[in-house]
Design a protein that fits this description.
With about 170 residues, the protein is mostly helical. It contains seven helices and two strands; from the N terminus they run αααββαααα. The radius of gyration is 20 Å and the shape is elongated.
């Protein structure tokens, strides 16, 4: 989340708490602690401007250096789709479409493998009638389908980013 916020503020032009909420669709409870932490760590500064005391965020020199030098650390393997989407966005904001598409390919492959594992797990529980086995079967089936759907969505995103790349 921290690299995502730094990139949104520095590269995406989302300088206010309101802009982060409205334009990036971020929830206040999810970003306020991260923004506060970034400010305490000296990576982000906040200024009060105007009659309504609108707070604007800006990266400090340390924050800018960290973002430039370490943003690739945001490209980890995440279980949740939202973290994966944030990592892709960081790469795009940093102007690295190639790395974003490679990361997307890997994320698709990871989710496809995880879907297969969940299918195998579902097979182990299929046909059993005790409530716990039925629960485990239902859970594995749902997880397999969710991960397949995530992989398909990420593949579509990768395809669209590749199209954009050709037009740039």
């Amino acid at each position: 989340m921290e690299f995502f916020l730094l990139a949104l503020i520095d590269r995406g032009g989302l300088k206010s708490f309101y802009a982060l909420q409205k334009q990036a669709g971020l929830q206040p409870g999810g970003i306020r602690p991260s923004l506060d932490r970034l400010e305490v760590e000296g990576l982000l500064s906040r200024s009060d401007q105007g009659s309504r005391r609108k707070r604007e965020y800006a990266l400090t020199e340390s924050g800018r250096k960290l973002l430039e030098q370490k943003w690739l650390f945001s490209l980890q393997s995440y279980i949740d789709l939202e973290s994966t989407l944030r990592a892709i966005t960081v790469a795009l904001l940093m102007g690295d479409r190639h790395t974003a598409t490679q990361y997307l390919r890997d994320a698709c492959n990871d989710r496809d493998r995880a879907a297969l594992q969940k299918e195998e797990e579902a097979t182990r529980y299929a046909g059993k009638s005790d409530p716990l086995s039925v629960y485990m079967w239902m859970r594995a089936v749902c997880e397999s389908r969710r991960r397949k759907a995530d992989a398909e969505a990420l593949a579509q995103i990768r395809q669209e980013i590749n199209k954009e790349k050709r037009h740039v």
